[in-house]
Structures are given as C-alpha cells and as structure tokens.
Specification:
alpha+beta, three-stranded antiparallel beta sheet, 2 helices, 3 strands
Length: about 70
Amino acid sequence: MDDLLPPCPDALMCPISQSRMIDPVLASDSFTYERSEIEEWLGKNSTSPMTRKVMNTTLTPNQAMKT
C-alpha cells in the first residue's frame, strides 16, 4: 500500500514497522505507533519498544496525526 502513496515524512512512520501509520495510537510511553504493531508488541512484551520501560496497554487514537 505504501507504494501507492506519496513519500511519507518520518514523523508519520511507525517506529516499530518503519511503515506509514494508517491507524495511529498514542501509547502510555508518549510515543505514537500503528495500532496493529503496538498491539502485537504488547502481546509479547510488557515494555515500551522505544524506552524499554514497563508500560501499560492503554492506547488512545491519535486523531491529529491521522488527520
């Protein structure tokens, strides 16, 4: 799907997959991730993929980034 879209700024790329975010969510570590990527990560890990600190599983849609 990324091939059909114009180049994406780094800020709109998921830090886990390095792909354009379609459903960005803000996690408790204050970073934004693609929902499916962070849900998969949290299913296997209890730490943030960015800080490696323990985090909870609360995910909030990041409407500003999605827009």
